[in-house]
Amino acid sequence: MVEGRLNLEPEVQEIFQSIDECRNFLLSGGAGSGKTYSLVNVIQQVIVENPTAKVACMTYTNAAVKEIEERVNHKNLNVSTIHDFLWDNIKHFQKELKGALISLANNAEVTKISITEVNPVPDNYFADLPDGVQYKEFVRIHEGIISHDELLIVANYLFEKYPKLSNIVKDKYKFIFIDEYQDTSKVVVEIFLEHFKKSERKNIIGFFGDAMQSIYEDGIGNLDVYKGVEAEKVNEILKKQNRRNPKLIIDLANKLRTDGITQEPSADPKAPNMIDGAVKQGTVLFLHSTDGNINKVEEFLAEKYAWDFNNSKQTKELNLTHNLIAGKAGFRNLMDIYDRDHILSYRDRIKKYIKDNNLTIDFSDNTFEEVIEILQQGKSGRDLNAVSPTNAMQIFIESNAELYNYAKSLKFLEFSKMYVDKDQLLDDKKQDEDDENKKGSKRDNLIKHLFKIQNNISLYQNKKYNEFLRATDYHFKITNIASKKALKENIESLVNVGNSTIEQVINNADEKRICLIDDKLIAFKENKEYLYNRVKDVKFSEFQKLYEYLEGQTPFSTQHKTKGAEFDNVLVILDNGGWNNYNFGNLFLETGSATVLDRTQKIFYVCCTRAKENLSVFFHNPSAQVITKAKEWFGNNNVIQI
């Protein structure tokens, strides 16, 4: 055996057997199996055995990129997100990129790439593009600017059309490893497992992940169509150990798996789920009540099982949606502005009516109110209803009459272009200096600005003075003791925000030169005046609650966001929050739509396997059949009515 391999875990030795046979491979392992540990070992050994070969490792998030880079620091290793990897390998082929965009824009089946200004798009459309095709956070196809989704489509097109591109990438990287493969887009897998075949160059593609943790709609989910024992197929290697969860949670998780993997406790006495040479037992509880009072659930767990809900690093409460958390975490008003504004819903209803009916009226000089009047004029019955608010919209409008009157006064064309989505509020990609140029952050420029202000406050409060000095806009004015004293007074006036509104704090931070109002915020106020005017009157203390939530400083998390994390105590709230993609009742009864059942089963599996010590599940008012199934899964004595 090659030197160094004897010390590797058995699954990694199997991977190298695949590598020796020039076969692509897939390491499938359940939650807590140590897939990232295996990935790191594979990279390290590959570098030892191939000291001149370049290795590419792709993963889903920038946080995962940093983690792998910290574990393996080597000049021949390139760690990146999948999007950054693809862009780095196609960005220099500007002629082909322009041709791809034109071809895709002229293809009616490719709905995500279109240029409405001209049809069909001529071959020379991008001839005078000053900076060529660019990849950014936003999309403007007519200017040659693509974003996340378009990049994948364009890359797939180029690799399919130009086999030479596969030659170039294979020559550059002898090994390409993809972490969390189940979250990878289907078109990315097509590039590496189908288009790469058109090139006769040799390289190895390795996938690491868990089909049972495929919880995002746009991920491939599994590689079943590519797996097999044949030489040209992907060789699957199973990693069955579980190093994280105690025995009772492993037993429950195995009842939820549907892919043939039955996990078993690690044989390693040093594994986190082992104590004195034996696997921990842990606790699993199924709690239910008729009143749905989650405070009672928390009190029960604190009193009977010593759970500490004030320690966000130890204890997490997992809800399916941000909306279910907003009230408890203290940012309800902000959530409602970004996600439940029925004036905006009515505006969208009007926009849809205009589009669906192919109306060619020129509304460029009309206000929103005038557009409504024009569309409603002479109509009655069903026709009038089509351009009138729904009952839910009408209730909201009546409760917010002043806001509605203001909306009606806005120019319709500008108002109609204003896009508002909860991701602009809640997207939790960090906005530190390292990530500022990363693609894909959906936070809007108002929320980014508020994060900068609060980041300054937090750095100062946590006595990280050097970092604070670098972050604040005041730093270039610090020349003597007097300026330091002035800075101290300025930041302390911000720390105690009291009942100040968001706008008051923005202006105060600007005046005190802690965080200057920049061009991005000025443009936001001009282009999204309606949204800014709603947010500016919210208390800044509410934004601070949002900040704490997104920075993981509260006991609350969404079930999707917690993937990859682990905590001593996990409370899972089984409430779909009106989201029809999930149904926890049907999960226990194994009924209903197969796709909804599969989706719910996977998110529940991910939630349960976050717990390192204790797991509790709360179900509001379950049926007798659900309770029967819960007793089968959790055990009779662990199903408790509170």
Could you outline the blueprint of secondary structure elements for this entry?
Blueprint: H1 10-20, E1 25-29, H2 35-49, E2 55-59, H3 62-71, E3 77-81, H4 82-90, H5 94-105, E4 134-135, E5 145-146, H6 148-161, H7 163-172, E6 175-179, H8 186-193, E7 204-209, E8 235-239, E9 241-242, H9 247-256, E10 264-265, E11 274-275, E12 278-279, E13 283-289, H10 294-305, E14 315-319, H11 322-329, H12 332-339, H13 342-356, H14 368-376, H15 381-385, H16 391-399, H17 401-408, H18 412-417, H19 423-426, H20 445-461, H21 465-471, H22 481-495, H23 502-511, H24 519-527, H25 529-535, H26 540-550, E15 556-558, E16 567-573, H27 584-589, H28 594-608, E17 611-620, H29 624-634, E18 639-641
Parallel strand pairs: 1-7, 1-8, 2-3, 2-6, 4-5, 6-7, 9-10, 13-17, 13-18, 14-15, 14-16, 16-17
Antiparallel strand pairs: 11-12
Helix pairs in contact: 1-2, 4-6, 6-7, 6-8, 9-28, 13-16, 20-21, 20-22, 24-25
Question: What structural class do the secondary elements suggest?
Answer: alpha/beta
Query: Helix content range of the residues, please?
Result: 40-55%
What's the main sheet like?
A: 6 strands, parallel
Query: What spatial form do the alpha-carbon principal axes imply?
Result: globular
Low-confidence stretches: 430-439
Mean pLDDT value: 92
Across the major sheet, the strand order is 3-2-6-7-1-8
Percentage of residues in DSSP E strands: 5-15%
Rg, nearest Å: 27 Å
- Count of helix runs: 29
Question: How many angstroms does the end-to-end distance come to?
Answer: 59 Å
Strand tally is: 18
Question: What oligomerization state is this entry in?
Answer: single chain
